[in-house]
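Repro:
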Amino acid sequence: MYSLALAGFEKTLGPDHTSTLHTVNNLGVLYAEQGRHGDAEMMYNRVLDGYEMAWGPDHTSTLDTANNLGALYAELGRQGDAEIMYNRALAGFEKVWGPDHTSTLKALNNLGVPYADGDAEMMYKRALAGYEKAYGPDHKSTLYVVDNLGNLYHKQGYNDAEIMYNRVQAGNELA
């Protein structure tokens, strides 16, 4: 369906229209979910270039696409590329929405993934504090960050990993 919609948008609105690009983004998300990473990367890069031209580098749709591309790169093990995209998304969201907006917190949490040191812990703790304030201690987004923090502690050999994992389990049981 996305391919049909894309063909129609490209024919009627052109390849660089924001409605066309929105469909390209959706196709990129689908490809990423299907494990078609090369196709997803191609779609995301097309959208990123198009949104930058149409709306500029700090538009929230541009930043969302940078974040999506960062997630794809992280999944592919391209940590350096993921870090670049996540930093770009984080800086943009902080500029547009501020440090406590949930989009900023999501980018901050994502940026912690390529790291395995104190920087990751700092990012996770900042994201955790923001999510707890925005959503509460048992929201799925909050628990996702708690799980990431537990994974980090586990990699570092800290006993606090068990505390984090137990919190995630208890929170999931409440849901």
